[in-house]
Amino acid sequence: MKNFHTGEATFISHVHLNVSDLTKMVQFYENVIGLHVLEQSANTAMLGVGEEAFLTLHAPEAVKPKQHRETGLYHFAILVPTARDLGVVLRHFINLKIPLGAADHIVSEALYLSDPEGNGIEIYADIDSDMWTWESGYVTMSTLKLDHAQLLQLSEGEAWNGLPEGTKMGHLHLHVSQLEDARQFYETLGFQVVAELPTALFMSTEGYHHHIAVNVWNGTNIPTPASETIGLRGAVMQFKNNEALEEAVQRLREADFSVSTAQNGYEVKDPSGNMYWLKG
């Protein structure tokens, strides 16, 4: 299986969320999702697996409630190394009686749930990329019934000890205001559309099924959330090196996107107001 989250790829390495109840949310992400706290202060908590942090929770003093029909997070997706690992997660969720969605996407197998503040979460395992079907630059994906029994059989006898080593942020799926504006922005960054619906785009680098997806399922011409609203605060977009980063920033500026210097890189918002920190 090729690693699509290192090397030549550009990918989402870290997601930041605004939350209202930091204590409750940390407990959820530790006890239900299986992450552990790597750093914590009065208003933030950085979580991950092993020594790799990929989710940070922020509790702004004047946090605003999440609104419906706005741009922002549809879900962030945590990638576990194997189908066996996903089976362990599934059994854990069943034991906790967690309400779940699930699907076989042909390229991956996925579980879906929400955290206590309404943020969508996907936990998934990729099917070997040698088994994916490509035609004219597009990958075949679908939404089929997940074989729960097979996953549980694969993981039989495996104890739950949180998410396993090698787990990482797999992809990010966003609500946007206009698909074509989003297409232009992400293609300028170097992503390719590898699957699309009339209402959604799936984009990647280096032949992944998707590192980023966008949809207009909340409607078109929808507003951007107010600052410090519960939900997506921003995400880190990781480039293979500083040269690739600088080239992407130059393309953005030539296309009249506003890019600012930030700590160890740059920051930019997509046309729907979703924030990225760009790093090389």
UniProtKB/TrEMBL annotation:
PROSITE patterns: VOC (PS51819). It comes from the Bacteria. Residues 11-126, 168-280 form the VOC domain. InterPro entries: Glyas_Bleomycin-R_OHBP_Dase (IPR029068), Glyas_Fos-R_dOase_dom (IPR004360), VOC_core (IPR037523). Coiled coil: none annotated. PANTHER family: CATECHOL-2,3-DIOXYGENASE. This is VOC family protein.
